[in-house]
Automatic annotation (TrEMBL):
Gene3D superfamilies per record: 3.40.50.12370
Domain of life: Bacteria
InterPro entries: UspA
Family stated for the protein in its record: Belongs to the universal stress protein A family.
Protein's UniProt name: Nucleotide-binding universal stress UspA family protein
Amino acid sequence: MDKHLLVTVSGEESAMHGIRFILHFFRNVENLKLTLFYTAPRPPAVWEHEKNFESLDEFQRLSRKAEAKGRRALEEARRFVCSLQFGEEQVDAKFMFRQLSTAMDILQEGEKGLYDAVVLGRRGLTRLELLAEDSVSKEIIGHESIAPMWICRWPEKHRQHVLLCLDGSDASYRMADHVGFMLADEPEHYIRLMRVVPSGTRTHRETDDIFSRATEILAANGVPESRIRIAVREGTPPWRAIMEEAEDGMYAVVALGRTGSGGGLFKRLFMGSTSVNLMRELVGAVLWVRP
């Protein structure tokens, strides 16, 4: 089945992190399609009482300049991708002037275009961190129909495999489905199922059930058990345990659902500070987040 990714592009070098991750991580790209997306700032609006030939001419000049910059960045990115693994028919480019904000335009395009994932470089990460302070934007980001986000902050190309973090929530199982869908045709990568539990946990029966269900989801996508590993870590805060495991295993991807389940200290395992800290601190590996 074809996989379609929305890849953000800007004039900054850091925006290429997402493209480089895709090129290094995926080996079988025949069924992978990319849409490169650039949203440009609009020039300052010309108010009715300010309208004259000079002001309108300046507005049009700035608009043309912004569009030329955006289309140039898209073309450079497209040439780069097509010079390596992708055919020209697999790569589209889309330019638009900013409607709301960079982050909101990206999120809305990701939802509207029914993409399998939205790929962000470091610039996109910064914009989304700013959004996290606004309750309305939090609701939009967490909406179930929003595509998974891949946050590419300094990915290291020699890394392999996926660390799939699970807590028994629906969101974590949706991420398991996403991981299985994306990696079914990538046999060189294995998937390690990981759960963080409170220190001193005596029984792992619930963990076994969670791993069993995730394994079934992966198998339904075509991932055999031979490519699945497991890991259980104790301790808090959970994001530190996840980062330690990611570094020990030199994983290319850390994948998790955005909402948690359960009670007490671990109720917010993959909410709030955990996901924010991973977005800010995780380097080397790419973070996949699924609402």
